[in-house]
Amino acid sequence: MTYRRLPNTSLDVSPIGLGTWAIGGGEWWSGSDDELSEKTILTAIDSGINLVDTAPCYGFGHSEEIVGRALKHRRREDVIISTKCGLWWEDKRGAYSFTTSGVDVYRSLHPETITKEVENSLKRLGTDYIDILHTHWQEEHQGHTPISETMECLMSLVKAGKIRYVAVSNADCTQMEEYRAVGPIIANQAKYSMLDNKIEKSLVPYCTKHKIAIFAYSPLEQGLLTGKIRMGSTFLPGEARNHIHWFQPHKRFPVLTMLDSWGGLCEKYSCTLTQLVTAWTISQRGITCALIGSRKPHHIIEAARAGDISLDKEDIEFMRQSVEKMKSTIDFTNRKRQ
Which of 39, 202, 219, 226 has a CA that sits 20 to 30 A from residue 264's CA? Predict the structure, then answer.
């Protein structure tokens, strides 16, 4: 696997990262097995993946605990730990964001809550420093914490050695400008897939210009782009996939039809659809790393292989054109159509 240097850092990151949202469990993700999740993290590291991405709100600390448990079995310096701050549930500070598993979660990037979150994360992860700390979601409500205050707090945590680098997540260009006015940010974690590429319009050019890495989350659209989810696949009430519009039957069918037509490409590169789609994602301009969520060792082994695949330019363009052609056949206004 060829590693990529994160601009303005000393970190070389694998183009495939392990996302651990599902490992946290909870009502959005059924069937979590902590022992299997721990094995998945260790398998990812042994397969060449050195970026493990987590967050306090993934299972209300549970994901970080599992990551910390796994990392006791590997050298700390061999793993880049990426976690987050800004989704707060200990009290009602911040703006209400959502409720899950009976717990109300608020967006808060106030220095006091950030400092507490970082201390809690360090304990759960079993480490004395975090490599990359992202602001998970940005405060956008009336009277929100000024980004300058948030960034001043984050820079003080860097100075104290609690975190090495500051990053953002789900931040637009204007917000990144405000962060950068106080101190450097090295990455933006953003939603990106071949089905959802809206960040290409402004975010990608901005990050490319200012040498800010992009970590793409949900590049496989919660498994849809693996081709393993079919028209007959169903999900338990409350699962995250039930709320993703691409899983609606009238959208799922053309996506699966398109994926099925790429069998020749899979043969050409001796790869699976998962690997083909992931290789396409990390070949896109500005995309530094694709975060692949997994709770099973064989799934992350499959994903890691994509880091070794180099797609021809004509195939990259062919896949992009296939996606655009497929999208043009979908009625995006009729969400109840069967």
Answer: 219
Beta bridge partners of 168: 135, 188
CA distance 228 to 298: 14
Phi, psi for residue 14 in degrees, rounded to 5: -70, 145
Q: Please, are residues 270 and 309 in contact by the beta-carbon 8 Å criterion?
A: no
Residue 156 neighbours by CB under 8 Å, 6+ apart: none
Task: Express each pLDDT in 11-61 by its tens digit.
Answer: 999 999 999 999 998 776 666 799 999 999 999 999 999 999 999 999 999
What CA–CA distances, in Å, run from 123 to 45, 68, 128, 129?
Answer: 21, 9, 8, 10
Entry field: residues in the chain: 338
CB under 8 A, 24+ apart: contacts of 68-76: 68/124, 68/125, 68/126, 68/127, 69/38, 69/126, 70/38, 70/41, 70/42, 71/41, 71/125, 71/126, 71/127, 72/126, 73/42, 74/42, 74/45, 76/127
Other CB atoms within a 10 A radius of the CB of residue 20 amount to 29
d(CA 213, CA 206): 10
Helix axes 273-282, 313-327, angle to 10 degrees: 100
CA distances from 168 to 97, 151, 209, 246, 288 (A): 18, 10, 17, 26, 14
- The stretch 185-202 carries a mean pLDDT of 98
What are the catalytic residues?
A: 58
List Cα–Cα distances, 192 to 61, 102, 108, 200, in angstroms. Answer: 25, 29, 24, 9
Phi, psi of 95 (to 5 degrees): -110, 135
88 forms beta bridges with: 106
β-sheet with 87-88: strand ranges across: 87-88, 103-107, 95-100
Residue type, 90: E
Q: Do the beta carbons of residue 51 and residue 289 sit within 8 Å?
A: yes
All residues at 6 or more sequence positions from 330 whose CB lies less than 8 Å from its CB, including other chains: 250, 251, 254
Percentage, residues of the chain above pLDDT 90: 88
